[in-house]
Amino acid sequence: MGIMDQFFQQLINGISLGSIYALIALGYTMVYGIMKLINFAHGDIYMVGGYVGFFCITIMHLPVLPALVISMVLTGLLGILIERIAYRPLRSAPRLSVLITAIGVSFFLEYTMMYFVTPQPRTFPHILSDVAYHIGPFVVNNQQIMIFAITIILMALLTYIVQFTKTGKAMRAVSFDTEAAQLMGINANRIISFTFGIGSALAAAAGVLVGIYYNSIDPLMGIMPGLKAFVAAVLGGIGILPGAAAGGIILGIVEALVSGFISSTFRDAAAFAILILVLLFKPTGLLGKNTNEKV
Amino acid sequence: MSILLEAKEVSKMFGGLKAVSNFDMTINKGELIGLIGPNGAGKTTAFNLFTGVYQPTTGVINFAGKSLKGMKPSQITQRGIARTFQNIRLFSELSVLDNVKIAYHTHLKYNLAEAVLRVGRYMKEEKRIEEAGRELLKIFKLEDKADEIAKNLPYGAQRRLEIARALATRPQLLLLDEPAAGMNPQETNELMDMIRWIRKEFALSILLIEHDMSLVMGICERIYVLEYGSIIAHGLPEEIKKNPEVIRAYLGGEA
């Protein structure tokens, strides 16, 4: 295999991985956009989503798509519940308190899951037979295509909701100016709940897809992808939806290329090196506008 | 004349500071009322109390016969009180039309499933508010700027858009917080005509805070004067002009 062939092959792998990061990063960025909270429990919501999908497939013997939808719905509700119980009482508290609470929620989810499902990794059943498509010199398998297709569909749906529905417009209004939005008759609490629900549902989709792709899930699986997705959101410009999508894909590609050409032990280092570079040279992210803090 | 809004002995404390105390006000249906007073007198606090941003420490506020106690700002807006802000607070990154459409949205009845599938009430209702929104923008001479981003509008146009957005919530009572701030005399005159016109056209009551005395005296039927959180005078514009308490509050010195 020539070096160009390998490059393109890694590109394909990177896009699959990046789609997963993008789905998680969207939730991060939506929640940040609307309440300026870095929800550090978001990676663990992705983990819960993976488990819900796992149980749908193994216990209820559902096919992939129904399992995906059920996982998205239940995990979305979990997101709403977490916001209601853990974050809403702190609406007017300093941001640091909410951030620390988010870390607490993260541990809570990790270790509660560990209690119920044991810390042992579970093997995701092999529900999709491997089909590899050869396009010229490259190999794409059906799982990669599924991940990419589902990601595109979910992103299109999200864009549509945010741009063209009253709920989406209300979300944007609340993120610009919560108080003014309330005075336009928008129930900000409902919109924030909705945002958490959607963000968590997207993370759940990512969790199920990862389970299918990598065949393995465990209660701490959310930590690294959660952090990576945070890097992706910052890379694209936190609070900006297309930025999170782009950031996720770019991060996935960089990781795949680093794994393929240098060493897979450096892929995490590469992701965090990106974070450091972004924070040094363009703290507002690729799609972010430079805003001068008013004093 | 029937009473639309009634505030009885309303006080608001911030810690030990009395921002508003024993505030009484009555607004009848269709009235145009001015609220004036020196800076820091508590005028904007009164607006925040009427719109549910703050809850009164003591006292009651009734609107259209019902108490507003414990209601959220969004619920009060749905009941029929809308406002503009002293420092313009548009959704600055959204288009002019979207700013107005967001305010219409509380009256829309379709659910997310209908929106995603583009069926049922979604298409019809969206089309209806699109038309209503453009109609409203026409009144405020903003129709050719409908697709521009709100923050790119000139200052005067942003002020007009704020009023248009407030009207889109279909209020019975419109609260205007210094609508003429930063306007030149000609713009202020146009604004006065517009305020009179919308009151008639939309059958509204209007309460406005203003420092521009020519505007207040020119269009308000009754005027309340606040100083240090208390009403020191209220009455017809001519009475207010001659009231020694008011003159003292504004010009200082012993009265």
From TrEMBL, chain A:
Subcellular location as annotated: Cell membrane
Pfam families with a match to the protein in the record: BPD_transp_2
UniProt keyword terms in alphabetical order: Amino-acid transport, Cell inner membrane, Cell membrane, Membrane, Transmembrane, Transmembrane helix, Transport
Chain ranges passing through the membrane: 12-33, 68-86, 98-117, 145-162, 191-214, 229-257, 269-288
Main localization category: membrane
GO biological process: D-alanine transmembrane transport; L-alanine transport; L-isoleucine import across plasma membrane
InterPro entries: ABC_BtuC-like (IPR037294), ABC_transp_permease (IPR001851), BCAA_transport_permease (IPR052157)
GO molecular function terms attached to this record: L-isoleucine transmembrane transporter activity; L-leucine transmembrane transporter activity; L-phenylalanine transmembrane transporter activity; L-valine transmembrane transporter activity
Membrane topology field: Multi-pass membrane protein
GO annotation, cellular component aspect: plasma membrane
Family statement drawn from the similarity comment of this UniProt entry: Belongs to the binding-protein-dependent transport system permease family. LivHM subfamily.
Protein name in the entry: Branched-chain amino acid transport system permease protein
Lineage: Bacteria, Bacillati, Bacillota, Negativicutes, Selenomonadales
From TrEMBL, chain B:
InterPro entries xrefs: AAA+_ATPase, ABC_AA/LPS_Transport, ABC_transporter-like_ATP-bd, BCA_ABC_TP_C, P-loop_NTPase
Domain annotation ABC transporter: ranges: 5-253
SMART domains: AAA (SM00382)
Keywords: ATP-binding, Nucleotide-binding, Transport
Swiss-Prot/TrEMBL GO biological process terms: D-alanine transmembrane transport; L-alanine transport; L-isoleucine import across plasma membrane; L-valine import across plasma membrane
Keyword Signal: no
Keyword Nucleotide-binding: yes
Name of this protein: Branched-chain amino acid transport system ATP-binding protein
Organism listed in the record: Pectinatus brassicae
